[in-house]
Amino acid sequence: MSTTTKPISFARGAPSLDIVDVAGLRAAADRAFATDPAGMTGYGTAIGYPPLREWIAEGHDVDPARVIVTNGSMQADAFLFDVLVAAGDTVIVERPTYDRTLLALRQRGADVRAVELETDGIDVAALQRVIEAGARPKLAHIIPNFQNPAGYTLSAAKREALLALGREHEFTIFEDDPYVALRFDGASLPTMVSMDADNVVYASSFSKTVCPGIRVGYLVAPEELIRRVITIATSTYISPSMVSQAIVNEFCRSGAIEHSIEIVKAALRERAFTLCGALEKELPDARFTRPQGGYFLWVDLPSGTDVSALHALAAERGVQFVKGSDFLLDGGESSCRIAYSGVTPAEIEEGVRRLASAYAEVAAP
Amino acid sequence: MSTTTKPISFARGAPSLDIVDVAGLRAAADRAFATDPAGMTGYGTAIGYPPLREWIAEGHDVDPARVIVTNGSMQADAFLFDVLVAAGDTVIVERPTYDRTLLALRQRGADVRAVELETDGIDVAALQRVIEAGARPKLAHIIPNFQNPAGYTLSAAKREALLALGREHEFTIFEDDPYVALRFDGASLPTMVSMDADNVVYASSFSKTVCPGIRVGYLVAPEELIRRVITIATSTYISPSMVSQAIVNEFCRSGAIEHSIEIVKAALRERAFTLCGALEKELPDARFTRPQGGYFLWVDLPSGTDVSALHALAAERGVQFVKGSDFLLDGGESSCRIAYSGVTPAEIEEGVRRLASAYAEVAAP
């Protein structure tokens, strides 16, 4: 990479600073310290900052006893897996899926079964065939909205079919939903946890609506499961950051979060639109589905394309992306994940030009 | 307990709000958002907020690569135990010791051996006898300053003897030192990690010098060990709260922490003095060692005193403390831990009067 080439990252699933409401966060922090210094500076408890727990519970129309607020949602996932997944347990994941989820499950010795993700979500019929062939899943990990890495969204019909399958075969659905608030257009689909509260564990996060560095996520689950997670959380860290959570609470209750989400969505919509247009123009071999929201676009290149070589040649041109194969147990060698959350439209256009130039070199006969 | 009796807690090892520098924290938060919005709101990395990591490293005169900053020091302990302690490994603890440490070690299936804590720290000769009798400890967990629950401090001579024993028998010393900054009088003793950086893992926290609710703690350890902890931390939560850590960083670098420590120490000194005086006057059967710092006083009552009954009778009078037996694998039935960190001198005097009245009932022939 030339020293004068400005690096452009399509790799990091994180927002650029210009779409983080720093002024709003600063004001929320100031109000939080003024309003509840005792609650914010004291140990608190493992359930999280109680007013934020209540705000989340209200949003989901559940009892606060069904909610625990954690240091980011990945910490919530880790607690959940510690409670639900023992070595040898079968866990269904989408194919492709979030690489850190794959890692967490494999670290716990789970028998991970990947079921194809279609553009309208996991192939429920294929999942049914896996079960009919003898699999006895304990858990199915699903990212329903604007999936990471694929950007696809689970349809309403498949949500119902998946819940029915879970009830029939007695597995829990882990609805991992950090991107839900980032829909560009159209109406949101109902969450699965709102359709079947007793058979779904729901996780979400404020990383995409407030900021990642605040590290606040949460679980909604049956009370008995929340109690088990609270026990683990208490013995792991006593309590999560009350300071972070009190700031998020102020940010939410003041309405700043609504404004923040509008800013983020407008920027992401424009970035996704720019990315799809640039790919159509510069890289017509790319196949993709326009995302309805979120951070990511999954790009399939013609079968046989050496995406590892493309990755290296793109890096020489100052462009980073994540290889598709990182999100699967096997396969994905001609695909890549393009994150558009952290790059401006101008950077996207320049980045795609560089990517196309690298691709030309890889694809050359 | 009468509805008009104000509860007094000698149970919670936490500061009262009047000795937390809320205004200083609020100002530090404001400056942090203004100074480094990108570093504070972005994901960051599992090592912690880099400027705070550097500040801690400078304070310990070590390379920052030897430091990881976590969501509270108990989270750091958990990571460390995950790396160092397998089921069946022998771990030495002090007798008595922090109840959460006992729990964490037992949850991991460790073979926990408790060695008597004397008023000048762990009985090193007894530890040597345990080793000579065949124990092969992997780790020795030591709270060197103003120990929780006993309030005792490890002498300089015993620090050296313990390090020599660790080198000879190849076990790691885990120096768990959250109270180090809270010495009332006299000079601080050198930390063991400063005496033998390769054989000691050091943990500390900002819970007692900034506030507990901010949840910032850290480890200092050999670089290879820190790298292993970073791997676990990354897959557990990606990164700790950058917002919390950036606020602590501002609080430290602005000098607010020095002022905060002076306020806290002055209050604790007065509280400890008041407590010892009140016990001498109201409960002359109590045996204790005046603490040189910290939050806790360990009280031995005459052998045979039913501290469980005392606990219940004190609760009826609106006074809480923790039974000594909570801090040992066995024994401690006639002892209690009195935390003076969260109570004013007036509350201490009233609390000890109530405790003495409960004791009179238990001790009655």
Index terms:
13 helices; homodimer
Task: Walk me through this protein's architecture.
The structure is a homodimer of 365-residue chains. Chain A is of the alpha/beta class. Chain A folds into two domains: 8-20 and 258-363, Alpha-Beta Complex (Aspartate Aminotransferase, domain 1); 22-255, Aspartate Aminotransferase, domain 2 (3-Layer(aba) Sandwich). Helix content of chain A is 44%, strand content 15%. In chain A, the strands form three sheets. Chain A has an eight-stranded mixed sheet with strand order 2-9-8-7-6-3-4-5, sandwiched between helices. In chain A, strands 10-13-12 form a three-stranded antiparallel sheet, with helices on one face. In chain A, strands 1-11 form a two-stranded parallel ribbon. The radius of gyration of chain A is 21 Å and the shape is globular. The interface between A and B is large, with 46 and 46 residues.
Q: What is this structure, in a nutshell?
A:
Chain A is α/β, with parallel strands linked by helices and 365 residues long. Chain A has 13 helices and 13 strands.
Q: Could you give the order of the helices and strands of chain A?
A: EHHHEHEHEEHEHEHEEHHHEHEEEH
Which regions of chain A are unreliable across 5 or more consecutive residues at pLDDT < 50? none
CATH architecture of the largest domain in chain A: 3-Layer(aba) Sandwich
Distance between the termini of chain A: 24 Å
**Portion in strands of chain A:** 15-25%
Report the CATH superfamily of the largest domain in chain A: Type I PLP-dependent aspartate aminotransferase-like (Major domain)
Main interface by residue count: A-B, 46 and 46 residues
Count of individual beta strands of chain A: 13
Shape, principal axes of CA atoms of chain A: globular
CATH topology of the largest domain in chain A: Aspartate Aminotransferase, domain 2
Walk across the major sheet of chain A and give the strand order. Answer: 2-9-8-7-6-3-4-5
- The tally of domains of chain A stands at 2
Instruction: Output mean pLDDT of chain A.
Output: 96
Secondary structure category of chain A: alpha/beta
CATH class of the largest domain in chain A: Alpha Beta
Helix content of chain A: 40-55%
| Major sheet size, sense and barrel closure of chain A | 8 strands, mixed
